[in-house]
Amino acid sequence: MSLLASLIQASGRFQQAMDSRQSAKPASEQAQTTTTKAPEAAGTPGDDRFTPSGRDQDSEGSLKTRNLSVAEYKQTIAQDLSHVRETLRHKLAEYNLNPSTALNVTKGEGGRTQVEGTLPDAVRARIEQDLNNNRSFQESFSRLSTNEPTLHFVDNALKLNQAYGVHNSLLDALVSENQQFNGLQDLVHRYDNLKRNAGGTEISAEDARRYAFNLNTRA
């Protein structure tokens, strides 16, 4: 029994020694062994990888241009387009020219109508004279040379915006927040003023001279 008692006493002393060593550890070390870090939830606002999503707000400019009626603008110039086109076709028939003959009509120096195309010089000169003496043709052509460039600009800018999201600051400058003042003539007037401010007082006259009406030609 003395051997068994000795083993029991030795075991007791060993357990006491282990308990003493455990209690002697620093508090920080004990906390490290007894606590675990809670995992951080993925995608929380504090995480650098978290990117909140949201819909982009429409710009003020796009809100203004959204209600522009290009179809209405085209209807405004439709009568002048038809009159100029039919007058030129009539001239081709009058001078026994191929009805598919391509003609390019512009304003030259002094505002006189000029005609270019594959046709004899004498015939071209007579057609030019007829057109310059045709008052209704001159009035329609003059309105087109003013209105159509603005319409083309607005139409192309809106198509690019709708198809590719391309923003055009010049278009925004043309458009009034009050839709009542966004008729074609309103846009033409503002477009003319912007061009004058950008390039001098003669730019509108130069644009009118550069304007060309094409018959039987592809754009």
Question: How does this model look, in words?
Answer:
It is built from 9 helices and 3 strands; from the N terminus they run H-H-H-H-E-E-H-H-H-H-H-E. Strand 1 and strand 2 form a beta hairpin. The protein has a domain of 153 residues. It is mainly α and 219 residues long. Helix 4 packs across helix 6 and helix 6 packs across helix 8. The longest helix is centred in the C-terminal third of the chain and has 30 residues.
Query: Which sequence of strands runs across the widest sheet?
Result: 2-1-3
Secondary structure tally, helices: 9
- Content of β-strand: 5-15%
* Inertia-based shape: elongated
Order of helices and strands: HHHHEEHHHHHE
Helix content: 55-70%
Give a count of the beta strands, DSSP E runs of length 2 or more.
3
Structural category is mainly alpha
- The N- to C-terminal Cα distance equals 119 Å
Cα-atom radius of gyration: 42 Å
Can I get a quick summary?
By secondary structure, this protein is mainly α. Helices cover 61% and strands 6% of the residues.
Give the tags.
single chain, 3-stranded antiparallel β-sheet, 61% helix, elongated, disordered N terminus
Question: Which helices and strands occur, and which strands form pairs?
Answer:
Layout: H1 2-23, H2 27-34, H3 60-65, H4 70-94, E1 103-107, E2 113-117, H5 121-133, H6 135-164, H7 169-174, H8 184-199, H9 203-210, E3 212-215
Antiparallel strand pairs: 1-2, 1-3
Helix pairs in contact: 4-6, 6-8
Biased composition (Basic and acidic residues): 46-63
Region (Disordered): 13-67
Biased composition (Polar residues): 13-37
